[in-house]
Specification:
Elements (H helix, E strand, L loop, with lengths): L3 H13 L4 H6 L8 E5 L7 H24 L8 H21 L4 E5 L3 E8 L3 H9 L7 H18 L10 E17 L4 E17 H8 L7 H14 L14 H5 L16 E15 L1 H19 L3 H8 L1 E4 L1
Parallel strand pairs: 1-4, 1-7
Antiparallel strand pairs: 2-6, 3-6, 4-5, 5-6
Helix pairs in contact: 1-3, 3-4, 3-10, 3-11
Length: 320
């Protein structure tokens, strides 16, 4: 039976998600997985969107409870501890989907093996493209995805991960509300379906360090080139396989321009090798609603907030 002390600890950990990833690391623990909701402006206040937001709160309370039991998430002082903490957060996040299978229809998508040689100045742009390849977004949404990932990677760069030859994993959640067509005898019936995707990326520690490494700031004249490129990108409403209007190269890129009398530099290439998993969990609305009152009571007792309120405060909504 939960005690007041355990509820206090649970509330403290769940409230950590209200902070930025960097603030979470500075407070002494691994940042909790970021949560994004991709939706249209017309559906953001729908009951289906509310269901998926409240379901993510249910997932997070289970994640926080398991992390408190394991007591690894807050041990990040050494490389060994930080790696274990990152992996435990990822594993426990994945486990929640199985534990909640009565309310979720879970599907593990085929593993994606990433093995690319990428010029360093394009590394973070290509990394973002890989993570969101299945999402068609506008330029503004791409910039916001970039900012969210930048904040998370910046927080991870503070961790003392120095050992070689080990694997490290991290995760984030992306929720969506889509329309699915159900065939009938003489007609098709579109219904709204809410789904939660757990993105899990696993890589070796040497690749991880390349990913989070900050590069020397590019000279001012190269920013003009990037600025012009961003202006061009914004004229396109949606992008998938074209150029993403991202700012990684501005922050961490290199100057690729050479003077006419200079020898061109050898390309600085990074081998991006990783395994990428996407677990899709569709919310069973009927099963969730049957348990919602009990879940809401527990969540309010544990945190002093409702599930929807907590989700609103810890989820970044992106309009696509």
């Amino acid at each position: 039976m939960a005690t007041s002390d355990s509820f206090d600890a649970l509330r403290t950990l769940l409230e950590a998600a209200l902070k930025t990833p960097k603030e979470q690391v500075l407070s002494g623990h691994i940042p909790l997985p970021p949560k994004l909701l991709l939706t249209s402006t017309g559906e953001v206040h729908s009951q289906t969107s509310t269901n998926v937001l409240e379901m993510t709160s249910t997932i997070f309370v289970g994640l926080a409870y398991d992390l408190l039991q394991n007591q690894t998430y807050n041990k990040i002082q050494s490389s060994e501890h930080a790696i274990r903490a990152l992996n435990d957060v990822s594993q426990n996040a994945s486990d929640q989907l199985s534990k909640l299978k009565q309310m979720l229809n879970v599907k593990l998508n085929p593993r994606i093996v990433i093995n690319r040689n990428i010029p360093r100045e394009h590394l973070h742009r290509e990394f973002l493209r890989v993570l969101f390849e299945d999402v068609v977004v506008s330029g503004g949404v791409a910039h916001e995805l970039d900012r969210q990932l930048t904040d998370f990677v910046d927080a991870l760069s503070s961790l003392p991960i120095e050992s070689n030859g080990e694997e490290v994993a991290f995760t984030f959640f992306v929720s969506e509300v889509n329309r699915k067509t159900i065939p009938g005898q003489s007609y098709t019936h579109p219904v709204e379906v809410s789904s939660i995707k757990l993105h899990l990326l696993r890589m070796r520690t040497d690749v991880y360090r390349e990913l989070i490494k900050k590069q020397p700031e590019a000279p001012p004249h190269s920013y003009k080139t990037h600025k012009a490129a961003r202006h061009t990108s914004h004229t396109t409403a949606h992008t998938r396989h074209g150029e993403w209007p991202l700012n990684w190269s501005n922050l961490w890129g290199r100057n690729t321009e050479t003077q006419e009398d200079e020898e061109p530099e050898e390309p600085d290439v990074v081998a991006l090798k990783a395994q990428y998993f996407i677990i899709t969990a569709e919310v069973d609305t009927a099963e969730f609603q049957a348990r919602r009152e009990q879940l809401e009571h527990f969540f309010r007792t544990a945190t002093g907030m409702g599930m929807k309120e907590y989700a609103d405060r810890t989820t970044k909504v992106l309009f696509v």
